[in-house]
Every structure is written in structure tokens, then in C-alpha cells.
């Protein structure tokens, strides 16, 4: 496919009254890029995937169909000390990732992927700069169960995770496991870290700021940045770096994702309540990604992505299952919604904020009819807060006929407002 084919496809779609769905190169949590209730076709960017890296000026032109893993590998081919602040999952397509507020484990140091975007050209090309990483980074994985004082450690993480040195990123994952002591269900809190520096400096900073975790020097491993990409995605040791070029996900399951933002630490009695509910539900997992650092320096009105200062972290609710069928899907979807409901008292309010790239149709669907502006505000304000109306104004100017649309796209102004 050539870029000129895109223009022809758009003209044809408008002439024939077809809806166009756009697929970048990776996955879509709610399938809005390849499912529709009306006649449609897919503009598949999958093979528009060229990546041209310039070490001299530290930029790259990347086509929208490339994956994050391909970008990482092409940078690695040119330099051992450069990296790019994007997602942990290498099979994510850059088109949706970059435009939807993509982030990774260098979030606190460099912000979102969109912070590094220098230019965009039509559908297909994005020019990005990237960060100079370290020759050596340090990683660790530490876990604690309820029997190992997990409640106290989780409570303390909420107080310090967004205030640690910006070179430290510690993701916290909470799930339900069988206790090694009693065999009964218990809560496990896992802490995954990337530090942009050596282990000695990390160990010193952690002793000063987060000694409650009980980090040991033997928990820490030093490696190159690209090796840390493989480590974070869970590839076994010894995997060649070119595995990042693979577009095949490690596994295929059914899944549901939801999101929240945490403004204040959940008190210990609140954690106890949530942990008890999670043990009842068993399957849903919560992932806490800390903010602070660079994320607190950019005003929320500066870019479409509004979730900046004032957030301790973003929460992802994740439920995976392998059983097929509507009955199984409804069961697991309901479990996820229940955990989301239990968290209501502890997360952001008015609006209850959400993260666009964890697409969630529970927040509202736009039928793209006469009420599209009002329908769009239901989910648009949760994703974009005060930036929603500005995005609607831009949309109205550049796409007044609302040709580029999906179930949660930005609508145009109603005709009486235009």
C-alpha cells in the first residue's frame, strides 16, 4: 500500500457512504478499529512500517503501522545508549500509541511518547526525538503477600511513588494468589522497577526514600536499556534482541481493561476492604503506574492528554480469560465492573477520569447522530477533562462532516453551534 491509496480510499468511502475504520499496527482493547454495526472497510496501516533513524540529530521518521518493538530495535541498531519513552508491550502499533497518550517505564523522566513528537505528516509518518538513556540501567522485581506485610508496603508506595527521584519508576501490580503458608487465597503485591542508572545509586536512593520495600542489592540487576525492554515484557533471559521485530503477541486471550486515576492515598482500612473484595472476585488484577516527575511539569491544557499534576498514579484494571462464549465473557466482564465499582470512593471524581489508550466502551458510546456532541461529552470529559471542548472545535474545523469517527471519537459541534 502506498500513501496515495489512502486518499483514494477516503474519496471512495465518501462516495459510497461507507464508514472507514483505521487500524495502526497493534491491538485495540475494544475492537473499535475493526468492528462496526454499519457497512465499513478497514484502512489497514499494518504494512506502512518504515523507520528511519538519525543518530546525528537524534530523531526518527516512523510510519504509523510500525510497532513499538520495531522502533526500539531500529534505535538499538544505531546506538547502545539511546532509547525512546514508549510502551512496555513491543507489539503495540505506534499510530494509536503515540496519538492516544502512550507511556512506558520512562514516564517519570521523559513523560509520554507525545512529548517527543516533533511533526506529523498525513496518516503515515511521525517524526520523533528520543532520549539519551544510560549505558547501564537497573531493574528489580520484589513481591510481598499479606502475610509479608503487603498492606503496609502498598500504603507506603502510594505516599512515595510519585515523589521518588525521577530516574526511578516502580510499577505496582496487585493480584490474588494462593498463600504458600495456608494455601488459602491471599493478596500479592509485586513491584517492578526501572532505574536509569547503576544499582549502587538505586540502592542508596531506595534506602533514603522507600526503605519499607526492603530492597536488597541482590534483587537488582544491571543491563542495557534494550535488554531492560525484554526483561519488562517477560522474555526469558538469553532471548536475542531481534525478538522485538516479532509482531506476534505472546498469547491470545479474551480481555477487558478499565482505568482510574488516584489523587490521594487509599487509607489502610480502604486497602483492607479492596483486598477482601479482590479475593472474592479472584480474577481481576490492578496495575498502578506512578506519575510525578516530568508528568507534573506539563500543564494539563498544553496538550490533549490532561492527566498531569495532582495524580499519584494511573490504575489499570485487567481481566484475562481463555473460555469462549457469551456466558464466560459476561461473567468476567461483570467481575471487572464490580472491582471498578468497589474502587469508586478512592479515585478521582467530577469527573472520574479515564485513560484513552485503555479504551473502555462502558464509559459511553457515540451513535454519531444529532446528539453526538452530548454523547461525546459523556466519555470525552473523562478522557480529556477541560480539553474536550477545544478538541471538538478543532474537529469541527478539520472534519466538519465527521467522516473520521468511531464509537468514542471526538464529535463535531451541533449544527446550531457551528
UniProtKB/TrEMBL annotation:
Keyword Flavoprotein recorded: yes
GO terms, molecular function: FAD binding; oxidoreductase activity
UniProt name for this protein: FAD-binding PCMH-type domain-containing protein
Record organism: Nyssa sinensis
Record keywords: FAD, Flavoprotein, Glycoprotein, Signal
Annotated PROSITE patterns: FAD_PCMH
Cofactor: FAD
Keyword Oxidoreductase included in the entry's annotation: no
Pfam families per UniProt: BBE, FAD_binding_4
InterPro entries in alphabetical order: BBE, FAD-bd_PCMH, FAD-bd_PCMH-like_sf, FAD-bd_PCMH_sub1, FAD-bd_PCMH_sub2, Oxid_FAD_bind_N
Domain of life assignment: Eukaryota
Domain FAD-binding PCMH-type as annotated: residue spans: 1-215
Family (UniProt): Belongs to the oxygen-dependent FAD-linked oxidoreductase family.
Amino acid at each position: 500500500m502506498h500513501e496515495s491509496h489512502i486518499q483514494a480510499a477516503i474519496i471512495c468511502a465518501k462516495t459510497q457512504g461507507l464508514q472507514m475504520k483505521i487500524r495502526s499496527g497493534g491491538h485495540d482493547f475494544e475492537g473499535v478499529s475493526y468492528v462496526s454495526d454499519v457497512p465499513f472497510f478497514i484502512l489497514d496501516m499494518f504494512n506502512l512500517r518504515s523507520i528511519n533513524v538519525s543518530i546525528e540529530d537524534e530523531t526518527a521518521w516512523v510510519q504509523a503501522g510500525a510497532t513499538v518493538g520495531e522502533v526500539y530495535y531500529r534505535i538499538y541498531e544505531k546506538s547502545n545508549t539511546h532509547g525512546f519513552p514508549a510502551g512496555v508491550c513491543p507489539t503495540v502499533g505506534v499510530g494509536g500509541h503515540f496519538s492516544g497518550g502512550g507511556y512506558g517505564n520512562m514516564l517519570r523522566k521523559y513523560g509520554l511518547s507525545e512529548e517527543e513528537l516533533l511533526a506529523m505528516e498525513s496518516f503515515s509518518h511521525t517524526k520523533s526525538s528520543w532520549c539519551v538513556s544510560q549505558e547501564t540501567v537497573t531493574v528489580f522485581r520484589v513481591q510481598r503477600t499479606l502475610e509479608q506485610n503487603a498492606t503496609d508496603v502498598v500504603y507506603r508506595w502510594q505516599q512515595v511513588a510519585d515523589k521518588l527521584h525521577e530516574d526511578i519508576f516502580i510499577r505496582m501490580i496487585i493480584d490474588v494468589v494462593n498463600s504458600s503458608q495456608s494455601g488459602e487465597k491471599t493478596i500479592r503485591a509485586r513491584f517492578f522497577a526501572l532505574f536509569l542508572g547503576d544499582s549502587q545509586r538505586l540502592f542508596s536512593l531506595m534506602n533514603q526514600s522507600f526503605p519499607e520495600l526492603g530492597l536488597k542489592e541482590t534483587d537488582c540487576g544491571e543491563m542495557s536499556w534494550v535488554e531492560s525492554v525484554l526483561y519488562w515484557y517477560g522474555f526469558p533471559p538469553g532471548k536475542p534482541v531481534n525478538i522485538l521485530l516479532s509482531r506476534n503477541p505472546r498469547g491470545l486471550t479474551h480481555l477487558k481493561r478499565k482505568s482510574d486515576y488516584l489523587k490521594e492515598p487509599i487509607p489502610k482500612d480502604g486497602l483492607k476492604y479492596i483486598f477482601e473484595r479482590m479475593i472474592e472476585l479472584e480474577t481481576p488484577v490492578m496495575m498502578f503506574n506512578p506519575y510525578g516527575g516530568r508528568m507534573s511539569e506539563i500543564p494539563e491544557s498544553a496538550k490533549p492528554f490532561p492527566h498531569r499534576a495532582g495524580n499519584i498514579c494511573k490504575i489499570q484494571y485487567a481481566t484475562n480469560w481463555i473460555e469462549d462464549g457469551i456466558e464466560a465473557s459476561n461473567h468476567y466482564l461483570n467481575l471487572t465492573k464490580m472491582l471498578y465499582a468497589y474502587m469508586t470512593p478512592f479515585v478521582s471524581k467530577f469527573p472520574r477520569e479515564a485513560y484513552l489508550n485503555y479504551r473502555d466502551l462502558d464509559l459511553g458510546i457515540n451513535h454519531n447522530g444529532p446528539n453526538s456532541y452530548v454523547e461525546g461529552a459523556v466519555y470525552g470529559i473523562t478522557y480529556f477533562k477541560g480539553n474536550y471542548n477545544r478538541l471538538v472545535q478543532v474537529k469541527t474545523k478539520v472534519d466538519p462532516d465527521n467522516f473520521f469517527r468511531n464509537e468514542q471519537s471526538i464529535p463535531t459541534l451541533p449544527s446550531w453551534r457551528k
